[in-house]
Structures are given as C-alpha cells and as structure tokens.
Write a structure and sequence with these properties.
Elements lengths: L3 H9 L12 H4 L2 E4 L4 H9 L4 H4 L5 E4 L5 H13 L3 E6 L2 H5 L4 E2 L2
Parallel strand pairs: 1-2, 2-3
Antiparallel strand pairs: 3-4
Length: 106
C-alpha cells in the first residue's frame, strides 16, 4: 500500500520516486519491476493512463512479480512487447511457490 513515509524511505535508499508509473522510471530504466497485490492493480499501473507501457523504452525489461492470473500477465506482456521491450513474469500458485514450483509463464 502506498504511503508517503515508505516512499520517502525508499527514495532515501536510492529508489526513484515518481508521481505516476510513466513519469520517470520506465523512460530512464533498463529494468522496471512491479510487485502489486492483484490483477486490477497490475493492469492499472502497467496499461492505464500514464502507465508503464506508455513510458517504457525499447529494449528495456519489465518484470512483474505479482501473484496474479496468467491471462493478465499475458495481456500485459503482449503490450510490453508491442513497445519493443521484453517482459519477464513469474507464474505459479502460492502453494507451488512454497514448495519451489514456480515457473515462467511463457
């Protein structure tokens, strides 16, 4: 969950703070990583207005570490690919993850 104190602490540790997903990070970064609570959050941050897809540069890598459904990861991955960037996402159920059963969702 977004909180200004947490954001300030991350920025103090070297992270880049931005007013939205497109504002700064995707344009300047070789690698963009998200870890969000649910599929609608991923869609909003990646695909929505001022989202990652609008700002990601060709050749960049997008890594989504959210535990969400495969259809959403494919949808976001296709949008990232159309921008000339590469997406790398993980897929698996929580019970499989605990037992080492994570796998790439390609």
């Amino acid at each position: 969950m977004f909180s200004r104190p947490r954001l300030r602490a991350l920025a103090a540790a070297g992270a880049t703070a931005a007013r939205n997903a497109r504002a700064r990070s995707p344009r300047r970064s070789e690698i963009v990583i998200t870890m969000l609570p649910d599929a609608p959050d991923v869609e909003r941050v990646a695909l929505g207005p001022n989202g990652i897809v609008e700002g990601i540069r060709p050749g960049a890598v997008y890594i989504d570490m959210s535990t969400i459904d495969p259809d959403t990861t494919r949808k976001v991955g296709a949008a990232i690919a159309r921008k000339g960037a590469r997406d790398d996402r993980q897929s698996g159920r929580q019970d499989r993850g605990r037992g080492g059963g994570w796998q790439r969702s390609r």
